[in-house]
Amino acid sequence: MKTGKFITFEGCDGCGKSTQLRLLSEFLKESGVPHIFTREPGGGKISESIREILLNGKNTEMTDECEALLYAAARAQHLREIVEPALQAGKLVICDRYVDSSLAYQAYARGLGVEFVEKINAFALERYLPDLTVFIDLSPQDAFKRKNGADENDRLEQAGMAFHQKVYEGYQAIATEYPERVKRVDGKKTPQGIFEEVVKLLKEKQCL
Fold it and tell me: What is the rounded average pLDDT for all residues in the chain?
């Protein structure tokens, strides 16, 4: 049973998550808060290996179902290996993407459906639901403009604007359905403005 707090960050590619995670890392170190930062897919040796397969721009023949199942497999390994021990130690766990990414990208954008994605992620949903999910709300048009286009080596970023628009709509639907857990932060604000909102949310959830 978890004793620490589990915080996840979500949003379209290029929304500014990396910047916020860096700012938060500096803040938590200065504040002396016991914590770890991790990411999905990834976080550990096996999950990072799965990440390489998933994001490799050359793996264009990967089916949508295979993609969804690989994400779920990487997540199960990551939770057992990285997240669970940290939570049991009472640490604050900050994760760059989690199961909401699977819902937005595979259930909504790939069209696999919420039921299918929730079923293969039951291990995560039943045991490790985040205490807070920060959704940096920025459209894919604005996000890719900010990052000067899609990464040619990232298979998902190369999926096209229509796909990423569906991802964004998926996130909007998730945020509307779970307003107590998923908190929107305006991605058009300055990095500092976003960070101040993030800290406020963490304090409201008694994570700081």
Answer: 93
